[in-house]
Amino acid sequence: MNKTFPFSCPVCARINEYPLTVMVEGAELKCPFCKCEIKLHGHMLAYVQKEIEKLTGPEPTPMTDSN
Ligand SMILES: [Zn+2]
After folding, report:
1. Residue 61 CA to ligand 1 centre (angstroms)
2. What is the percentage of the chain residues whose pLDDT exceeds 70?
3. Which pLDDT score, from 0 to 100, does residue 66 have?
4. Centre of ligand 1 from the C-alpha of residue 1, in Å
5. CA 63 to ligand 1 center in whole angstroms
6. How far apart are CA 11 and CA 17, in angstroms?
7. What are the contacts of 50-54 at 24+ separation with CB within 8 A?
8. Which of 38, 39, 56, 58 has the fewest CB within 10 Å, making it most exposed?
9. Over the chain, what is the mean pLDDT?
10. Tens of pLDDT along 21-36?
11. Ligand 1 center to residue 57 CA distance, Å?
């Protein structure tokens, strides 16, 4: 199953879908619209990883919520 991540280009603000497997530290994401390359690192990487976690579901934790 190939999941993709909708990443909005910080330059032109268009949404591009990238496979989750390429969304790693140091990845260079080329925007097909404005042709700029975004290197994934720092707080942008942290943001992407958080969003991917939301997409793939939370990691199982020993604690159970009250619901
Ligand atoms: Zn762009």
Report:
1. 37
2. 91
3. 67
4. 27
5. 41
6. 16
7. 51/5, 52/5, 52/20, 52/23
8. 58
9. 90
10. 999 999 999 999 999 9
11. 28
Residue 40 · residue 23 · CB < 8 Å = yes
Residues 6+ apart with CB under 8 A from 24: 40
Look up the pTM and report it: 0.73
Q: What spacing in Å lies between the alpha carbon of 54 and ligand 1's midpoint?
A: 24
Alpha carbon of 43 to ligand 1 centroid (Å): 19
Q: Is the pLDDT of residue 38 over 90?
A: yes
Give the distance (Å) from ligand 1 centre to CA of residue 12. 4
